[in-house]
Write a structure and sequence with these properties.
By secondary structure, the chain is mainly alpha-helical. The chain has six helices and no strands.
């Protein structure tokens, strides 16, 4: 048998270490967002506002570069809509947070209905019970947000983003630690 060991390049090891460090930052940020959900909610609102501003600018740019295509007016109108909503979120972040919270409730309600429909349509197949379960959980969350709105505005987005970041951080950390063990075994 050949007893030669395979050498793993150090950039791979550094990449895994960076991934572990970023995972820890994501976990800490998620915990912070859960502890201080209003601040996280405002941060999300500002981020979405900037994304909408940049999307509006992209529509204006597209309209400028495709002047002869006949859709220029529509692209400009869409760009104005994006820019106006983005500016609203940036200049009125608390009201924007309330708007995003109610929009989230409507989105979750629609998602739950679609999950129910998909579970019914796919019923004979295995695993459709999970779709039904997901639909019920999503519906409960939508109703909770809707019924407590606007008082839920202060905590909903920040808490949900916090939990998302926390679980993303943990899953990334577990994958990175497994990769580190694999690298150590191979090296």
């Amino acid at each position: 048998m050949n007893n030669t060991s395979v050498s793993v390049p150090t950039p791979v090891g550094r990449s895994v270490n960076w991934s572990i460090a970023l995972s820890i930052v994501m976990i800490a940020a998620g915990l912070l967002a859960i502890v201080v959900p209003p601040a996280a909610g405002i941060a999300v609102t500002l981020f979405v506002g900037w994304l909408l501003i940049f999307s509006g600018l992209a529509h204006f740019s597209y309209a400028w570069h495709t002047r002869g295509s006949g859709s220029t007016v529509w692209e400009v109108l869409v760009g104005i809509a994006y820019a106006c909503v983005g500016a609203y979120l940036l200049f009125r972040p608390v009201l924007g947070l309330a708007s995003l919270t109610i929009a989230l409730a409507v989105y979750l309600f629609a998602e739950s209905i679609l999950e129910f429909i998909m579970a019914i349509r796919l019923r004979p197949q295995r695993g459709t019970g999970w779709l039904l379960f997901h639909g019920f959980i999503t519906l409960i969350l939508a109703v909770m947000i809707w019924r407590t709105w606007p008082s839920s505005t202060a905590w909903v987005l920040g808490t949900l983003v916090g939990f998302s970041m926390l679980f993303s951080g943990f899953s990334r950390l577990m994958i990175s630690l497994a990769a580190r063990k694999l690298i150590a075994r191979v090296a």
